[in-house]
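Figure 3 (text version): structure tokens given as input.
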């Protein structure tokens, strides 16, 4: 049975790689095919947003989800900024695209992306699409000599605003090699508003009379933390001065939303400040309990992040309205998602790059032409699937000189109501910076599998003689130091790892076998589905 399912997933992946629409009899394409091939695409991506923050996005839920589909189990395979965005651009897992972290010292950053000219924008440009990127790019590109390949318009944040603790005000946007446009501290310069108004909306409006299809990626900053300005919103969402580094800033909302969500408190599920951490790996279990000051910081980050997301909700509503004015709404697929989620005290952790639900979970809402709206889909999907889905809907393929082996599968069938493939296995992977040890360096990483019911993870540690060797080290290298296995049906908060429970021995063996296939997979070999046995009674 498992082999049959694996074959079905491999066939789906092969179809995603060869998704050009066939010719009808007589060599002419049908009207439906022409409509599908000329579809346009808008992707709106937020930063550090888990699905629970969708409460701050009523327009997204109504205009996109109400008229499209919402994927309830969407994941970032590597829950960290640069690797996740590179996965979206390439349709590949991080072990294949090469961006293994956020910094060059960790084997990551945009400069580590292999074959950067082979990306979704370049493939669509070769198929006749106008392409535009606006906003927060992959980490590391602070002063580009030229726009990254594939983009007709590239209005990326550059300088100090392009990475690290970014700025909601006083930032620069690339205009040409060696040139940028500065936005200051006026109310109108609030980053989400300015990027939408000055770049995204005019790009769409320019296609009122232009018949070419287009692809727009709008990459927005909320609810990530960042510098603000000296106003009520900035002071509310900072510990110190909101316009100076080191001010303890959270996300910064625009002035019009300065008083929104002021009493919101981060959800406190049973995993929040988890009491018994004995089942967790030692380097996590040794973390201190969350004190009152940290709780206050977590709550401030949550409520300010929600308020900042209201500006994103405005941007999506404006984009939908502009698409309608341009006569393109009914021929445009709109995708809303995030680069990864974020932990807010669960398992005593804050941040991302951990293989837990709050970090890997992302929103994924898709409004697409001729799709029945208001549906939810429970199948496990991941950010590796977005690029092949767009290619499939566009009826496009990558030219040979720009080819790249895609690891994800097209979700077109799911979007259009095809039978479920709920037995999918998705790879989880990530690694930390090299840490100094008594001799040489040690590099920690993890690899795992997420299925509809289970999460299985192996934590690895490798010792290397030099930083250069550590940078070159593959994700998952070294010996396994810890394991985790969670039955999400019985334990959705991941409180009790079952990796030592004899009742889950068969499930553990099956999941470990899936991991063995996935951690070095490529192309159709990454499209794996299998039946994992339940616990022995």
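Below: residues designed for each position.
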């Amino acid at each position: 049975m498992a082999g049959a399912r694996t074959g079905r997933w491999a066939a789906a992946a092969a179809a995603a790689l060869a998704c050009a629409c066939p010719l009808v009899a007589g060599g002419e394409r049908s009207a439906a095919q022409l409509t599908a091939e000329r579809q346009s695409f808008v992707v709106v991506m937020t930063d550090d947003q888990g699905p629970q923050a969708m409460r701050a996005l009523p327009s997204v839920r109504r205009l996109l989800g109400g008229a499209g589909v919402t994927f309830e189990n969407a994941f970032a395979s590597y829950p960290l900024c640069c690797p996740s965005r590179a996965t979206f651009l390439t349709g590949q897992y991080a072990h294949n695209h090469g961006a293994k972290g956020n910094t060059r010292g960790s084997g990551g950053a945009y400069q580590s992306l292999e074959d950067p000219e082979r990306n979704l924008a370049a493939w669509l440009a070769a198929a006749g699409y106008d392409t535009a990127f606006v906003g927060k790019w992959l980490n590391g590109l602070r002063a580009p000599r030229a726009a990254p390949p594939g983009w007709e318009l590239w209005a990326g944040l550059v300088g100090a605003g392009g990475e690290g603790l970014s700025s909601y005000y006083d930032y620069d946007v690339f205009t040409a090699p060696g040139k940028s446009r500065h936005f200051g501290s006026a109310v109108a310069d609030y980053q989400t508003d300015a990027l939408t108004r000055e770049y995204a909306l005019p790009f769409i409006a320019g296609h009122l009379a232009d018949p070419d299809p287009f692809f727009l990626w709008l990459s927005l900053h909320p609810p990530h933390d960042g510098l603000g300005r000296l106003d009520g919103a900035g002071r509310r969402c900072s510990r110190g001065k909101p316009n100076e580094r080191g001010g303890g800033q959270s996300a910064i909302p625009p002035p019009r939303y300065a008083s929104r969500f002021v009493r919101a408190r981060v959800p406190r599920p049973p995993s929040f400040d988890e009491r018994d951490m004995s089942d967790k790996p030692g380097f996590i279990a040794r973390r201190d309990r969350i004190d009152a000051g940290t709780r206050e910081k977590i709550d401030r980050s949550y409520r300010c992040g929600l308020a900042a997301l209201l500006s994103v909700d405005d941007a999506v509503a404006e984009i939908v309205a502009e698409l309608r004015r341009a006569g393109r709404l009914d021929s445009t697929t709109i995708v809303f998602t995030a680069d990864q989620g974020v932990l807010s005290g669960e398992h005593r952790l804050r941040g991302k790059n951990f293989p837990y639900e709050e970090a890997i979970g992302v929103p994924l809402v898709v409004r697409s032409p001729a799709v029945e709206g208001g549906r939810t889909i429970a199948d496990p999907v991941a950010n590796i699937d977005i690029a092949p889905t767009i290619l499939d809907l566009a009826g496009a393929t990558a030219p040979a000189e720009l080819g790249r082996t895609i690891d994800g599968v097209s979700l077109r069938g799911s979007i259009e109501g095809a039978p479920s493939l709920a037995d999918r296995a998705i790879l989880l992977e990530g690694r930390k910076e090299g840490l100094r040890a008594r001799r040489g360096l040690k590099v920690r990483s993890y690899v795992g599998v997420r299925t509809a019911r289970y999460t299985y993870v192996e934590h690895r540690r490798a010792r290397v003689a030099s930083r250069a060797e550590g940078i070159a080290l593959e994700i998952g290298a070294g010996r396994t130091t810890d394991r985790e296995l969670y039955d999400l049906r019985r334990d959705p908060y991941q409180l009790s790892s079952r990796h030592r429970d004899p009742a889950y021995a068969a499930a553990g063996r099956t999941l470990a076998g899936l991991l063995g296939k996935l951690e070095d997979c490529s192309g159709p070999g990454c499209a794996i589905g299998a039946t994992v046995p339940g616990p022995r009674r």
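The first strand starts at residue 40 and ends at 46.
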